[in-house]
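Re: weekly structure request thread

Next one in the queue (472 aa):
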Amino acid sequence: MPERAERYFSGSDAQRSAARTLFESVADLPLICPHGHVDPLLFADASYHFGSPAELLLIPDHYVFRMLYSQGVSLEAQGVAVQEGEDGSEVESDHRRIWQTFAENYHLFQGTPTGLWLNDEFRDLFGIDEKLTPANAQAFYDTIAEQLAAPDFTPRRLYEQFNVEALTTTDAATDSLEHHRAIRDSAWPGRIYPTFRPDKVVNGIDQPEWQEQIALLREAAGIDIGDYASYIRALEVRRVFFKEMGATATDHAAESPYTELLSDSEAETVFRRGLNGEASEADARRFTGHMLVEMARMSSEDGLVMQLHPGSVRNHNAVLYRRFGADMGADIPHALDFTRNLKPLLDRFGSHPSLRLILFTLDEATSARELAPLAGHYPILRIGPPWWFYDSINGMRSFFAQVMETAGIYNTVGFNDDTRAFASIPTRHELWRRVACDWLAGLLVEGIIDDEDALQMAHALAYGLAKEAYRL
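Done, posted below.
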């Protein structure tokens, strides 16, 4: 076998050999991608082609441009577009120059997950075995550009090449899902499903843009939203629509996992203050906390799996937010408390037979202290895989070390890639499968599990858990 076949495995001969055997048993399993941010537009048109190498791999990827930004390379120099009304004269439009700047700074990714993913994409997707340097940057660009222009280098073809079984996108509650409809109406058999994400109409009722979002919800649902009750009906109508379009899950981002059950009259009062532009920051926190409980109630009734991604202070860099908008690599984690904050929701739904709530964390300390004990007790709870800053070799190893003894693997949901970068999906799944098999190999050589257990657990972690957890 080639040397790279043993990447990320232990230095111990016995463990490395066991890990290789386990990985071979799962390496060719289909990919279940139950949570991500790939644009469904890529699959709506059979003839869709990616743009330049910079458009595919650099400009839209905040993992890439945040690293260069941290070393003083402006977002403008990396081709990131500014918001309407901002002076865009400094934004670099020459994609070859953007690529050259990237190559000159490629050493910044040494030893990082992003560097690993990119190296794998260069080698496995584009057939380039060399290391990217400033000297060969333009040759890299030419090789990639030539393949991007090939007639069969389309997202649909790559979906099949990657052996993807199902892939979900993340879509606003007000989205028309027109691209999903185009996919469904075509003869292509690929399974691309939406995920219902209502953050913009739930969070931030103290912000001016919230009223604009409610107007969009009113239009999308066809319901005149004048009070809290009609607002709830509109959300329920949209969930029905998403289910009809194939959705099996919802997704919710919140700064904290705080939950609170308001009375109908309290919810009405706070909601009306939001409609009138009079809501306070405290109102916003209470309303989001209440709506997480309401979303759990809806999921208990319609069967959509509920995901909660808390713990990020969004758009921390105010200067970048004003000039470039959201999602510019400046979302920064903060400390969380799940045990107390989730109690109102769990008091009401913790043992509900039809509800599944998947919890993610950016506060690694909570994994062993709170998430594993919670998921190891409450029937509705599952633990999501290492997320965002912990979607890495060390993050995964830490996850296995902190979570599995208390929760067991069957209270986790396997892996999801959580990415906008479609081309990186195979290498992300391969990394997870390799790290998981190496962990299992350690248990095997220590006599904690036997061969039959190890093979069964490897299959579950690579494929079965995600498929079952997301009802795919």
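The chain has a mean pLDDT of 96. The radius of gyration is 23 Å.
Next request, please.
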